[in-house]
Amino acid sequence: MDIQLSGRKVLVLVSNGVDEAVMSTVQRDMLKTGATVKTVGTESGLVNSWNSQSNGWGLYFPVDQQIGQTLGSDFDALVVPAGARSVQKLGSNPHAERIISSFITAGKPMVFMGDAVELLAKIELAKGFTVAGPERSHQILVAAGAVWSGAAEHVDGILMTGEGADLSSFIQNMAAHIQSGPVEEQQQLAA
User: Fold this and answer.
1) What is the mean pLDDT of the chain?
2) Is 164 helix (H, G, I), strand (E, B) or coil?
3) In this structure, is the dihedral angle defined by the CA atoms of residues 110, 113, 119 and 124, taken in order, positive or negative?
4) What pLDDT, on a 0 to 100 scale, did the predictor assign at position 188?
5) HSE-CB of 89 using CA atoms within 13 angstroms
6) pLDDT value for 1
7) How many CB atoms lie under 10 A from the CB of residue 5?
8) What pTM value is reported for the model?
9) 143: phi > 0 → left, psi -120 to 50 → alpha, else beta; which?
10) Are the beta carbons of 67 and 95 closer than 8 angstroms?
11) b/e 135-151 (16+ beta carbons within 10 angstroms → b)
12) At residue 134, what are phi and psi to the nearest 5 degrees?
């Protein structure tokens, strides 16, 4: 990966049921960029991933910080990996809404991978965003007030969403999105 994110702190928000393949690739590739990656979870210690190939529980991933002790202001970017079970648990956690809201308010880059885009609907923060993702998420997001892009991936200001079917390409584009920095920083550079 050519993009360097040295000095950037990336919050990876997860719960039990995060997609194993996506989580493994996100951690590996984000570390290659030089970013400081912190896994924040609803559980303390470890989260158990879901292996979609075997249709069963997969690897455990260490959690660096529990969600209730995390402030969005301590990070430069937010990544929410795919995983229906993880999204369901995050959607019922008030700290997930608090953290995501802080990224929106601060204009910091956010990436919702695959079905993680549904988290925006679950916590009622989808309204006004144009989003992309798996077709099965389409109606959920439209009902929550989002505009459906239909593209494989879409960037709407600070928000990047998409199917993530080509995971390598998606993560390359995700790193570029994170590198772009907060919207306010981009405006200062343009001035």
Assistant:
1) 93
2) coil
3) positive
4) 37
5) 18
6) 62
7) 22
8) 0.93
9) alpha
10) yes
11) eebbebbeebebebbee
12) -65, 145
Tokens of 187: 């405006």
Cα pseudo-dihedral 128, 166, 21, 45, rounded to 10: -40
Q: Are strands 46-51 and 159-162 parallel, antiparallel or unpaired?
A: unpaired
**What does the radius of gyration of the chain's CA atoms come to, in whole angstroms?**
15
Q: Is 111 helix (H, G, I), strand (E, B) or coil?
A: strand
Per-residue pLDDT at 18 exceeds 90? yes
Where does the pLDDT of residue 181 fall: very low under 50, low under 70, confident under 90, or very high at 90 and above?
confident
Structure tokens at 81: 């990996």
Query: Residue range 168-175: average pLDDT?
Result: 95
Residue with tokens 């405006």: 187
Alpha-helical runs (H) found in the chain: 20-32, 84-91, 94-106, 118-122, 138-143, 167-179, 183-190
Q: Strand 153-156 and strand 159-162: pairing? A: antiparallel
Mean pLDDT of 87-115: 97
